[in-house]
Amino acid sequence: MKKLLLSLFSILTPLLTYAQDASTSANIDATFKKYTGWFVDFIFYEIPFSEEFQIPWVLIVLIGGATYFTIYFKLINFTGFWTAIKVVRGKYEDIEKHGADTLYGDSTPNEGENIIETIRDDSAEGEVSHFQALTAALSATVGLGNIAGVAVALSIGGPGATFWMILAGLLGMASKFAECTLGVKYRDVGPDGTVYGGPMYYLKKGLGEKGMGGLGKVLAVIFSIFVIGGSFGGGNMFQANQAAAQFVKLFEFSNPNAGLYFGLGMAVLVAIVIIGGIKRIASVTEKIVPFMAGVYVLAAIIILVANYNHIGDAFGLIYEGAFSGLGIAGGLIGVMIQGIRRGAFSNEAGVGSAAIAHSAVRTKYPASEGIVALLEPFVDTVVICTMTALVIIITNYEAGFMEYGTEITEGVEITATAFDTVIPHFSIVLTIAVILFAFSTMISWSYYGMQGWKYLFGKGKITDMVYKFLFLIFVVVGASISLGSVIDFSDAMIFAMVVPNIIGVMLLTPIVRKELKKYMKAINKKEDALDSGAEDLTNKM
Predict the structure, then answer these.
(1) Which residues contact 407 (CB under 8 A, 6 or more apart)?
(2) Which of 463, 445, 451 is CA-nearest to residue 201?
(3) 68-78 tens-digit pLDDT
């Protein structure tokens, strides 16, 4: 690892010191845009519905897919919620490791025998727990979108955008359920227990089972290319760039190489984590994400309590604005678009990225992880994004720091201002949160990109090291240079992942429904056995 980092630093330091020159960055940016601009324009092309409103076609695909999955799986978003809580808590860990039939299948379960001793060698494949998989996936979505993106959405669409943002989050729960169930169903497990999973595997194997192997292989390759590109850009450079900007601003560094030094330091920390694979990534994210999300939500609750007299008014504005537009340019449709856009883009439901992290979970029932995954849009969008919106709306009553209907560019500053009105200097904590969220996003996306890389170029140590070396280079590049077109292109690649993923998931929905029935049958078998006097073996796992 030391050799890797030394090589990284020796190559990049002189290069980036030169590249930080404004004219050099501008030339690189212009050249890149010349050759990739068409792709960005295509992915984010907005279908005109009127003179004032245009909707990105990728957003229509995301929401359309989420609505279809919600209906097809009979509101699994809501009916599966409490089951998801129980699964994360480990209530069904025993049957997920060994199967319900093995543990609770006979009429006199466990009577006169030590059932645990007989099944110890028959445990489920996988590398991480449900909670670890959940936090690893959440770490890739919880971050700047929740802090800055919500403020931008409110500035354009007003308080009413919050309602549609919540709706997008609720619908996205069904998308996460479907794609993450498939991720576990069609994963590959190496001889050493390493898991390889994600859309590229269920596109190839799942569609192959349905007699569409050619289509599946093509979609899998396309997805892999997009996820690699997205991991270098939106999941890496953008995060490093924003984290560096907040760090430099917080400490008021004037050194022109401050971004470079920050990037090198961040690269070291990222390297320490990603060298260890998904197990180490999960062990880090399960600590960072709950802690920072907890601090952020707690601060939001403090602000809401301090302004409890305005909470009713805030919800009134949200409801009224959601269905009237409250004078916002474009009215109802404009408000709806802004809210849905923020909700869909924040939680990445339908993109397929989360299925990669969830594929590594230890379970015999694919649907168990699909049910866990539906919690992600709820936590990311329904809870954290909504808390951010309420804080901004309520504090804006008296402070008046933002005019609805006028787009802002610095979303972090608006959110920081809102928190500072009640908790002085919380903007410092918010800056630290942005950096930590950026860090957790990078390490999670490194795993996503790695899986796509391995799918295309093979599984081996050299393949791993090449990707990780490139990923660390992009960390430093992102923190050091302002390359708008590069970031735009990378973001476009992330949302381009929607196309092959949604096509595949829609074609494989009968498989998902079958797996859901199988898992619910297993849960019912355990519950019936417990009602008949059987011992709950969960604590013995």
Answers:
(1) 152, 155, 156
(2) 451
(3) 999 999 999 99
Residue 119 is predicted with a pLDDT of: 47
Please give the Cα distance from 242 to 238 (Å, whole number).
Answer: 6
Q: What is the pLDDT of residues 18-45, one digit of tens each?
A: 555 555 556 666 776 777 788 888 888 8
Compute the distance between CA of residue 452 and CA of residue 462 in angstroms, rounded to an integer: 15
Mapping DSSP to helix (H, G, I), strand (E, B) and coil, where does residue 340 land?
Answer: helix
The pair of structure tokens assigned to 2 is 């030391």
Q: Answer with the residue of higher pLDDT: 23 or 389.
A: 389
Decide if pLDDT at 374 tops 90. Answer: yes
User: What is the predicted pLDDT for the residue at 245?
Assistant: 81
Q: Which amino acid is at 438?
A: A
Rg (CA), the chain: 24
Q: Do residues 285 and 442 touch, judged by C-beta distance below 8 A?
A: no
- 8 A C-beta contact, residue 238 and residue 438: no
What pTM value is reported for the model? 0.86
CB 214 within 8 A of CB 106: no
Decide: 474 and 26 in contact? Cβ < 8 Å: no
Q: Which residues, at least 6 apart from 149, have a Cβ–Cβ distance to it below 8 Å?
A: 342, 345, 346, 385, 411
- 13 against 261, higher pLDDT: 261
Residue 29 has a pLDDT of 65
At residue 137, what is the residue type? A
Question: In this structure, are residues 444 and 281 in contact, taking their beta carbons and an 8 Å threshold?
Answer: yes
Q: Which helix (H) or strand (E) holds 46?
A: strand 46-48
Strand 54-56 relative to strand 195-196, pairing: unpaired
Domains and CATH numbers, the chain: 2-106+122-526 (1.20.1740)
CA angle at 42 for the pair 37 and 48, rounded to the nearest 5°:
125
169: CB partners within 8 A, 6+ apart: 343, 346, 347, 377, 378, 380, 381, 382, 385
Residue in 44, 29, 176, 34 with CA at minimum distance from that of residue 491: 44
The letter for the amino acid at 10 is S
Between CA 160 and CA 534 the distance in angstroms is 52
What angle (nearest 5°) sits at the alpha carbon of residue 215, between those of residues 236 and 212?
135
Using CA atoms, how far residue 274 sits from 144, 285, 355, in Å, is: 21, 12, 18
> Is residue 188 packed enough to be buried (19+ CB in 10 Å), middle (13-18) or exposed (0-12)?
middle
Residue owning tokens 């993109």: 351
Of the candidates 354, 358, 319, 287, the one whose C-alpha atom is nearest the C-alpha of residue 126 is: 358
